[in-house]
UniProtKB/TrEMBL annotation:
<protein>
    <recommendedName>
        <fullName>Phosphoinositide phospholipase C</fullName>
        <ecNumber>3.1.4.11</ecNumber>
    </recommendedName>
</protein>
<feature type="domain" description="PI-PLC Y-box">
    <location>
        <begin position="466"/>
        <end position="582"/>
    </location>
</feature>
<dbReference type="GO" id="GO:0004435">
    <property type="term" value="F:phosphatidylinositol-4,5-bisphosphate phospholipase C activity"/>
</dbReference>
<keyword id="KW-0443">Lipid metabolism</keyword>
<dbReference type="Pfam" id="PF09279">
    <property type="entry name" value="EF-hand_like"/>
</dbReference>
<feature type="compositionally biased region" description="Acidic residues">
    <location>
        <begin position="424"/>
        <end position="442"/>
    </location>
</feature>
<dbReference type="InterPro" id="IPR001711">
    <property type="entry name" value="PLipase_C_Pinositol-sp_Y"/>
</dbReference>
<dbReference type="InterPro" id="IPR001192">
    <property type="entry name" value="PI-PLC_fam"/>
</dbReference>
<dbReference type="GO" id="GO:0016042">
    <property type="term" value="P:lipid catabolic process"/>
</dbReference>
<dbReference type="InterPro" id="IPR011993">
    <property type="entry name" value="PH-like_dom_sf"/>
</dbReference>
<dbReference type="Pfam" id="PF00168">
    <property type="entry name" value="C2"/>
</dbReference>
<dbReference type="Pfam" id="PF13202">
    <property type="entry name" value="EF-hand_5"/>
</dbReference>
<feature type="region of interest" description="Disordered">
    <location>
        <begin position="421"/>
        <end position="455"/>
    </location>
</feature>
<dbReference type="Pfam" id="PF00169">
    <property type="entry name" value="PH"/>
</dbReference>
<dbReference type="InterPro" id="IPR017946">
    <property type="entry name" value="PLC-like_Pdiesterase_TIM-brl"/>
</dbReference>
<feature type="domain" description="EF-hand">
    <location>
        <begin position="116"/>
        <end position="151"/>
    </location>
</feature>
<keyword id="KW-0472">Membrane</keyword>
Length: 730
C-alpha cells in the first residue's frame, strides 16, 4: 500500500478512470493522483473511513459484474453523507492487500484524546508548511492561526513562536511545533478547576480525585475504585500512575474522555427493559428508505437501506412496482425517481438487517397490486424462515403481551391482510377480504375494478401467500379512537399523515396516548415534502407514537433529534417509553404537564464555559474566523419547549470563553431532548451552522463535562467540543 497501486476508480458503468493510490508514511492518509497528469486529485484520512466492503456491494460495481470479477472489486465507505469510493484492483491479490490493510488500520485507530491531538497537530502542520521543507517560519504560523480559527494579536503570536523556537533558528520543526501547539491550547479554565482540588497545584492525590468525583461529578458509588481506574487509564506518566496520582495532563485527558462526556456512559449500552410489548417502545423509523435525494426525481439506492440500518433504523419502507419480465422494482411510484430491483433490496436486508446484533426489523411493504408479486422474490433473498412473518409463523398467538424479546431476529411485514388474523390461524372464513389502509385502500378498490377476472384470481393466490406473512402488523384504516378500542386488535397498525396526527394531538391528546399504549401507530411525512424535508418527530413522540418515519437522507434539527433519542440503549433502535405512556388508562396529555404522574418539575442549569477548536464554516473565505455562540434548545412537551443562547465571541473559533449560565425548567423531563448548537454569528444574515450535539435528558451526566460536537450530517468532528458544567435539581 505504501508503494502505491494503480486501480480503476469507478463512478458509473461508463466512467472508469485509472488512478494511482498510495498510503502516506504516516499510515493515516491516502492520496490518489491522475495517471495521465500526475496531479494529486484528492486525499482522505483513515479516520474518515467507516468500513470496506468486498465484491460487488454497490449498484455501480453490480452493473460491472460481467466485466470484472468480485475478487478484484471493493468499496470504501466513509462516515456521514460523503459518497462511497468504488475501486477495481488489477488483481485479486492487490484487492486483498488494500481490503485487509485498510481494515487493520481502521481497527487500530481508537480515537483517544492523545491520538486525536497528535492527528490534529500533524494535519495542521502539513497544511501550513507551504514549501514542504518540514519547517514553519513566522509567516507560515500566522497563516496557520487563521486556518485554525484564531485571530491572535501579532505580538502575542510572536512571543509564543519565539518561546517554542528552542533552536533559535527562526523556524519551528518537530517537537518545537508541538511546544507551540501546547502553548496555544493551554486550558486555563481546566487548570483552575484542577488547582481548586489540588493542594500543591501540581497533582491530584487519590483522595483529592475522589473529592472531585463526589462533589462535582456527583459520582456516588465506588468512587475510590473509579478514581484508580481513571488514573490507570488516563495518567500519561508511569511514575504518577505508580504513586496513584493524577497530573494536570491526565486530568484534562479524563475530562475529554467518554467518562468525562455529558452522555452517561452507562446508557451507551443496553440499559432498558427489553422484554416489554412492542407498542411500549419508540422505534427508529425511516420513510421511503430507498431514496437518497428528493421524492420526485431523486436516486433510489440500496445505500439508503445500508445507511439507515447502520444508523440504528429498525423500520424500513419498500415500495414495490412491476418491472421488466415480471421482476418487481423498488421506487417511488408515479414519480421520476430511479429504480432498483426488489431482489437487491432483499439481498441487502439479508446482509445488514442483523449484522450488528440488533433485533426486530419491522419492514413496511407498501404499494398497490405490485406487492403481491413480491412474494416469490422475497423467498429468494431472505429464505422461508424470515419471509413467513419474519420467522413468526402464522400460528404464533398475537396478544398484547407479544414482546420485543419474543420477536428477536425476526422481520415483520407491515401490510394489508386478506381477512382476519383468525382466518389465517383457523382456516378460511366467510368474511369479505379486508385490505383497507389509509395509505392505499382506495387505490386497491380501483385496481380490482380494472383487472380481468383471470388475472385477478392469479394475483389473489399470490396475495394470499403474502397476506399470510402479515401477522403482527396488519394495516388497518384509522376511524377514530373509540372505533379502534372497540374493534381493533394489538396485532394491527394504522398509518397517519403528519397533518392528521397533529389534529388528533390537538383534539384528543390523552386518547392518543392511551391508544399508543396498546397499539402501534405509524406517522409519515406530508406528500407536499417533495424535497425530502422532515416534520418534527417530537410532537409525535409526545403522544407515544412508536413508528415516526423520517427522511433519513435529509440533515437538520429533525434528524438530530432522532439520532439524539436513539443514540442510547446500545443504538438498538428501540427506546422504552416512560411508565405513564405504557398505561392504557393513563391520564397524561402532553398539553397539560400536570396530568403526568410522578415527581414535580426539575431545573436544568447549564454553565457554558468554553469551546475548543471549533471547525470553520463550510465554504468560508480564506482567513475568515468565526464569531461563535452557543444555543441550548429543549425539545419536549409544549410547556418545556425553550431555547437560550450565549453572547457571541468575536473572531475566536479556537478557544472561545463564554462563562454564561442558562437555566430551564422541565415539567416532563422523561420526554425532553436537549440540543446544543454552535453557530457563527452574522449580524446581517442568518447565522451559519458550526456543530451540534443532541441527547435525551435522561442520558445527561451532571458535573464538569465535555460535549463532543457533531457535523450537520451527524458525524463526529474531533477535537471540536464544548466544556460545560451541569446541575439538575428538583
Amino acid at each position: 500500500m505504501q508503494q502505491g497501486t494503480l486501480m480503476r476508480k469507478v463512478k458509473s458503468k461508463s466512467w472508469k478512470k485509472q488512478r494511482f493510490f498510495k498510503l502516506q508514511d504516516d499510515c493515516m492518509t491516502i492520496w490518489y493522483q491522475s495517471k495521465r497528469t500526475g496531479k494529486i486529485e484528492s486525499a482522505f484520512s483513515i479516520s474518515d473511513v467507516e468500513t470496506v466492503r468486498e465484491g460487488h456491494q454497490s449498484e455501480v460495481l453490480q452493473s460491472l459484474a460481467e466485466e470484472f470479477p468480485p475478487e478484484r472489486c471493493f468499496t470504501i465507505v466513509f462516515y456521514g453523507r460523503r459518497g462511497n469510493l468504488d475501486l477495481i484492483a488489477g488483481s485479486a491479490e492487490e484487492a486483498q492487500c488494500w481490503i485487509q490493510g485498510l481494515r487493520q488500520l481502521i481497527e487500530v485507530l481508537p480515537l483517544t484524546p492523545a491520538l486525536v491531538s497528535r492527528t490534529w497537530i500533524r494535519d495542521w502542520f502539513q497544511k501550513a508548511d507551504k514549501n514542504k521543507d518540514g519547517r514553519m517560519n513566522f509567516k507560515e504560523v500566522q497563516r496557520l492561526l487563521k486556518m485554525m480559527n484564531v485571530d491572535m494579536n501579532e505580538d502575542h503570536a510572536l512571543r509564543l513562536f519565539q518561546a517554542a523556537d528552542k533552536s533559535e533558528s527562526g523556524t519551528l520543526e518537530g517537537e518545537e511545533f508541538v511546544l507551540f501547539y501546547k502553548a496555544l491550547t493551554q486550558r486555563e479554565e481546566v487548570l483552575s478547576l484542577f488547582q481548586d482540588f489540588s493542594e500543591d497545584g501540581k497533582k491530584l492525590t487519590l483522595l483529592e480525585l475522589v473529592d472531585f468525583l463526589q462533589q462535582e461529578q456527583l459520582e456516588d458509588e465506588g468512587t475510590e475504585e473509579l478514581a484508580m481506574e481513571l488514573i490507570d487509564k488516563y495518567e500519561p506518566s508511569e511514575t504518577a500512575r505508580a504513586r496513584h496520582v493524577l497530573s494536570a495532563d491526565g486530568f484534562l485527558m479524563y475530562l475529554c474522555s467518554p467518562e468525562g462526556s455529558i452522555f452517561n456512559p452507562q446508557h451507551r449500552g443496553l440499559w432498558q427493559d427489553m422484554s416489554q410489548p412492542l407498542c411500549h417502545y419508540f422505534i427508529s423509523s425511516s420513510h421511503n428508505t430507498y431514496l437518497i435525494e428528493d421524492q420526485i426525481r431523486g436516486q433510489s439506492s440500496i445505500e439508503g437501506y445500508i445507511r439507515a440500518l447502520k444508523r440504528g433504523c429498525r423500520c424500513l419502507e419498500v415500495d414495490c412496482w412491476d418491472g421488466p419480465n415480471g421482476e418487481p422494482m423498488v421506487y417511488h411510484g408515479h414519480t421520476f425517481t430511479s429504480k432498483i430491483p426488489f431482489r437487491e433490496v432483499v439481498s441487502t436486508l439479508g446482509k445488514y438487517a442483523f449484522k450488528h446484533g440488533r433485533t426486530l426489523l419491522p419492514c413496511s411493504l407498501l404499494g398497490a397490486e405490485e406487492n403481491w408479486w413480491c412474494w416469490s422474490w422475497g423467498h429468494k433473498g431472505l429464505g422461508d424462515s424470515k419471509c413467513h412473518g419474519g420467522g413468526v409463523h402464522p400460528k404464533v398467538p398475537t396478544s398484547p403481551s407479544l414482546t420485543r424479546q419474543e420477536l428477536k431476529h425476526k422481520i415483520l411485514l407491515k401490510g394489508k391482510k386478506i381477512g382476519r388474523l383468525e382466518d389465517t390461524l383457523d382456516g378460511p372464513g366467510d368474511e369479505a377480504p379486508d385490505v383497507s389502509d389509509d395509505d392505499n385502500g382506495a387505490e386497491e378498490e380501483r385496481r380490482r375494478a380494472k383487472v380481468g377476472p383471470a388475472l385477478q384470481k392469479d394475483k389473489e393466490s399470490l396475495a394470499q401467500a403474502l397476506s399470510d406473512c402479515v401477522v403482527y402488523c396488519k394495516s388497518v384504516s384509522f376511524r377514530g379512537f373509540q372505533e379502534a378500542r372497540s374493534h381493533s386488535r394489538p396485532s394491527e397498525i394504522s398509518s397517519l399523515s403528519e397533518a392528521k396526527a397533529r389534529k388528533l394531538i390537538r383534539d384528543a391528546g390523552n386518547e392518543f396516548v392511551r391508544h399508543n399504549a396498546w397499539q402501534l401507530t405509524r406517522i409519515y411525512p406530508s406528500g407536499m415534502r417533495t424535497d425530502s424535508s422532515n416534520y418534527s418527530p417530537q410532537e409525535m413522540w409526545n403522544v407515544g407514537c412508536q413508528i415516526v418515519a423520517l427522511n433519513f437522507q435529509t440533515a437538520g434539527t429533525e434528524m438530530d433529534l432522532c439520532d439524539g433519542l436513539f443514540s442510547q440503549n446500545g443504538r438498538c433502535g428501540y427506546v422504552l417509553k416512560p411508565p405513564f405512556m405504557r398505561d392504557e388508562e393513563t391520564l397524561f396529555n402532553p398539553s397539560d404537564p400536570s396530568s403526568r404522574e410522578g415527581p414535580g418539575p426539575v431545573t436544568l442549569t447549564i454553565q457554558v464555559i468554553s469551546g475548543q477548536q471549533l471547525p470553520k464554516v463550510a465554504n468560508s473565505k480564506d482567513g475568515a474566523v468565526i464569531d461563535p455562540l452557543v444555543r441550548v434548545e429543549i425539545h419536549g412537551v409544549p410547556a418545556d419547549q425553550a431555547h437560550q443562547e450565549t453572547k457571541y465571541i468575536e473572531n475566536n473559533g479556537f478557544n472561545p470563553r463564554w462563562d454564561e449560565t442558562l437555566q430551564f425548567q422541565l415539567h416532563v423531563p422523561e420526554l425532553a431532548l436537549v440540543r446544543f448548537v454552535v453557530e457563527d454569528y452574522d449580524k446581517t444574515s442568518r447565522n451559519d451552522f458550526v456543530g451540534q450535539f443532541t441527547l435525551a435528558f435522561a442520558n445527561i451526566k451532571p458535573g464538569y463535562r465535555h460535549i463532543h460536537l457533531l457535523s450537520k450530517d451527524g458525524t463526529s468532528i474531533p477535537p471540536s467540543s464544548l466544556f460545560v458544567h451541569i446541575r439538575i435539581t428538583e
